[in-house]
Structures are given as structure tokens and as C-alpha cells.
């Protein structure tokens, strides 16, 4: 990696801000989970009440002195803020604390750097890291930022800072080009699936909602799943068979989080496109999380950013084994269409209900019809059989084939167009009255 990450196990002093407005406030418990996921040892947790952010330190000067003494007493290696810091605030705090200071974005980037496994995932993490670092390059190079003039003091043409920025821009350009190639390859794969009429079901949801555990249950796979934030970074696709539907591609994707840094959304766009191009989204919700509703809203915000907020969605309320007196069940809307499934992926409870609900949602546009074929349409009859669409067959009095069909309407239209027929006209002439 171009931007090296410090090893885990460091002593970290955590600073959480209270009193800020609802839009910028973060969750303290989630902050602790993030720090543990990064592998840091918590040396102390300090809550600071602040109604207005200080331009210099974010927090007040008196609190900075108090924290500096605590850093020295606890021999902390790093101070982590549960908030976004500007580059100048980060530098000012490092000068006072005499140790590294990182903000919430830097912490999430560190976790992503640890978890990325595939070449694509590593490229996306590095891109996000470099873009984050580019605004903080002054750190460590302040003495070289400006060259002095005069005889014997003129510089070589550019400062060290300018050299670093140029190298960063070149590396960012190189990674972006590689990711464009990955995006192109993914789009080709998606086009292939669309041509084969294979529907895609994508799992989305807040981080640690149980998506990978559910994915493993659905697909009988062994994808890494753990009780930690961002256990999954790299998208995984598996093929399963559903009754009445046939082959379906299931995609496991990266979890979302409150105030997910915009740079990460941009960097992981190629991965998140698996969600934006899906036929059905399974929104996995941790039913036992007290912040359940806030997490649902955050997921909808991110889906809006990647253009997936208008896709068909089935809510999956997971971890009901942690709730009292909740049995696996399916909730449907007024028309009987499944809207929400309650289950436990860990215990395997309600997985049969989920399978039926997915099949029902994907089969909303299924055509079930009795048609009568002419004597010259034997090839079309063979194609219906090859597609597994024939439920039954009988002979009419005049010797024509009467077929009972059930198949996706898109498959029906494709087969007829291949035979040079118009679907609407065919149904008018060949449907059994």
C-alpha cells in the first residue's frame, strides 16, 4: 500500500463530542465498536460537551490542556476523535498532544485497510486513503512548504510538499484508471447475466446487521462473518436455485454506516454498483439494535447516493433470537406482496419463509397462461419445454397443442421475439378463452 497503516494494538485515547446538532452527532457505542474493530487498546474514553465547534481545536483550549495531560499520563499512542476534523485542527491537536491524532474518517479508513482482501478492494481503499491524505500533506513538511529566496537559498524548482502532491496525483490517476477497468469488467459480467435473464438479489444494510451470516445460510457458503463492524468489504456473488424462478445470483456487499465518508462512497462505487443494478434488494436490519430506525434511515440515504433507492426492496429483520417472544414470520402489504421477513440467520430460523418471499417478489412479473399453438409452431413448443415453462399439455379437438405455461414475462417475450412473433398479438390470438 502507498499509504502505510500503523499496526494495531496501540493505546488510544477516545474523544466523543456531545451537544452538537442532530446532523453531526455520532453514537458513542458505535464509536467504541469501530475502535475495537481497528484493533486498538482503549486507554481512556472522554466525553466533551460542546455546542459550537472551535475552528482551531474543535474543542475548547482548556479541554485540550486537560487531554494533553491525560495523553502523557496514559502514555497514549494516538488520540481518536468521534468526529470529522479539518486538516488544520488535526495538526494543531497533534502539536498539543505530541502524538498522532485521527478523526472518524481516518479510523474507518484504517479498518477498511485491514479488511480489504481482493485486488479491487485494496485499490479502492488506497484511493480513499490517498484522497484523505492529500488534504493533510502539510503534516511533517511544514519546514519545506516555502523555499527562501536569495543567493544560495533558491530551491530546485519545487518544494518537497509539491513533489509529494505531484506523486499523489499521479498515483490517484493510476488507481482511478485501474478501477475504471474493474467497473467495465463488472458491467460486462452484468450484461451477460441480463442476457441469460438471471435475476440478481443484493444484500444491503447497516454494518454488522448479519448480512454475511444470512448470505452463508442462503447460499450454503463460507464467507467470512464476524460480530464486528465492516467484516465484509469485498463483494461476493453466488448462484442459487429457487423454486418457480430458477437460477438467482445473490450478492453480499459492504455494510453502510452513519455519516459514511463521501470519499468512501465514491471509492467503493464499483462495488456498490452490484446493489444499484440488482433486481431485488434484501435490506438486512438488526432487529435487536436499539438504534434500528436510525440505521434504516442511514441505509436509505446511502442507497439514494448510489442511485438504488427506487429498486424493489424486501426488508429482512434479522437476529430475532435476541428478542423476546418473536417468531419467524412474513408481513405483507394490502395486495399480499411480502414486505418484511422476521428471521434469525444465526439460528437458521425463518430461512424457508425468506426463500418463498424472494421467489414471490422476483416472480411478481411471472406469466401463467394456457395457450394453443398452431400446427406449424412445433419449434416454439420445444423452446417452451427447454425453458422449463410447461406445467401441462393437452390436445384440442382439432389436434393442436394446448400448453399451460409458467415463466417470467421477460423470458416469454424473448422466446416469442426470437420466433419472429409479437407477444401482445400472440396472446390475443393464442390464449385459451
TrEMBL record:
> Does this entry carry the keyword DNA-binding?
no
Which coarse location class describes where this protein primarily resides?
Answer: cytoplasm
- A Pfam family annotated for this UniProt entry: MMR_HSR1
Which GO terms label this protein's molecular function in UniProt? GTP binding; GTPase activity; guanosine tetraphosphate binding; metal ion binding; ribosome binding
Report the GO terms under cellular component: cytoplasm
The subcellular localization recorded is: Cytoplasm
Q: How does it assemble?
A: Monomer. Associates with the 50S ribosomal subunit.
The family annotation for this protein states: Belongs to the TRAFAC class OBG-HflX-like GTPase superfamily. HflX GTPase family.
Q: What is this protein called?
A: GTPase HflX
Q: Which organism is it from?
A: Halopseudomonas yangmingensis
Q: Write the gene name.
A: hflX
Amino acid at each position: 500500500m502507498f499509504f502505510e497503516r500503523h499496526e494495531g494494538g496501540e493505546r488510544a485515547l477516545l474523544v466523543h463530542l456531545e451537544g452538537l446538532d442532530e446532523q453531526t452527532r455520532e453514537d458513542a457505542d458505535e464509536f467504541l465498536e469501530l475502535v475495537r474493530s481497528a484493533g486498538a487498546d482503549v486507554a481512556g474514553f472522554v466525553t466533551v460537551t460542546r455546542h459550537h465547534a472551535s475552528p482551531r481545536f474543535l474543542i475548547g483550549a482548556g479541554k485540550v490542556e486537560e487531554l494533553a495531560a491525560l495523553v502523557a499520563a496514559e502514555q497514549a499512542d494516538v488520540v481518536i476523535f468521534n468526529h470529522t476534523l479539518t486538516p488544520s485542527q488535526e495538526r494543531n491537536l497533534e502539536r498539543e498532544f505530541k502524538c498522532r491524532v485521527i478523526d472518524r474518517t481516518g479510523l474507518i479508513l484504517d479498518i477498511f485497510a485491514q479488511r480489504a482482501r481482493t485486488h479491487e478492494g485494496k485499490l479502492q481503499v488506497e484511493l480513499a486513503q490517498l484522497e484523505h491524505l492529500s488534504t493533510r500533506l502539510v503534516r511533517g513538511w511544514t519546514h519545506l512548504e516555502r523555499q527562501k529566496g536569495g543567493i544560495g537559498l533558491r530551491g530546485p524548482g519545487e518544494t518537497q510538499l509539491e513533489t509529494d502532491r505531484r506523486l499523489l496525483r499521479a498515483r490517484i490517476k493510476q488507481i482511478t484508471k485501474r478501477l475504471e477497468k474493474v467497473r467495465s469488467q463488472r458491467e460486462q459480467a452484468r450484461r451477460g447475466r441480463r442476457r441469460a435473464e438471471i435475476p440478481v438479489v443484493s444484500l444491503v444494510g447497516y454494518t454488522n446487521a448479519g448480512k454475511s451470516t444470512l448470505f452463508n445460510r442462503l447460499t450454503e457458503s463460507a464467507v467470512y462473518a464476524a460480530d464486528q463492524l465492516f467484516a465484509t468489504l469485498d463483494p461476493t456473488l453466488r448462484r442459487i436455485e429457487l423454486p418457480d424462478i430458477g437460477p438467482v445470483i445473490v450478492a453480499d456487499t459492504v455494510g453502510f454506516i452513519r455519516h459514511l465518508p463521501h470519499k468512501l462512497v465514491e471509492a467503493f462505487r464499483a462495488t456498490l454498483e452490484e446493489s444499484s443494478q440488482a433486481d431485488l434488494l434484501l435490506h438486512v436490519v438488526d432487529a435487536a439494535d436499539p438504534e434500528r430506525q436510525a440505521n434504516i434511515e442511514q441505509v436509505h440515504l446511502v442507497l439514494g447516493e448510489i442511485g438504488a433507492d427506487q429498486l424493489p426492496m424486501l426488508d429482512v429483520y434479522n437476529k430475532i433470537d435476541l428478542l423476546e417472544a418473536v417468531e419467524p414470520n412474513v408481513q405483507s402489504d394490502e395486495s399480499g406482496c411480502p414486505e418484511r421477513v422476521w428471521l434469525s440467520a444465526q439460528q437458521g430460523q425463518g430461512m424457508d419463509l425468506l426463500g418463498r418471499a424472494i421467489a414471490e417478489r422476483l416472480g411478481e412479473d411471472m406469466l401463467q397462461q394456457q395457450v394453443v399453438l398452431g400446427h406449424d409452431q412445433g419449434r416454439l413448443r420445444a423452446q417452451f419445454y427447454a425453458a422449463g415453462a410447461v406445467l401441462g399439455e393437452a390436445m384440442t379437438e382439432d389436434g393442436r397443442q394446448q400448453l399451460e405455461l409458467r415463466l417470467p414475462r421477460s423470458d416469454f417475450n424473448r422466446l416469442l421475439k426470437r420466433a419472429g412473433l409479437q407477444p401482445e398479438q400472440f396472446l390475443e390470438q393464442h390464449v385459451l378463452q
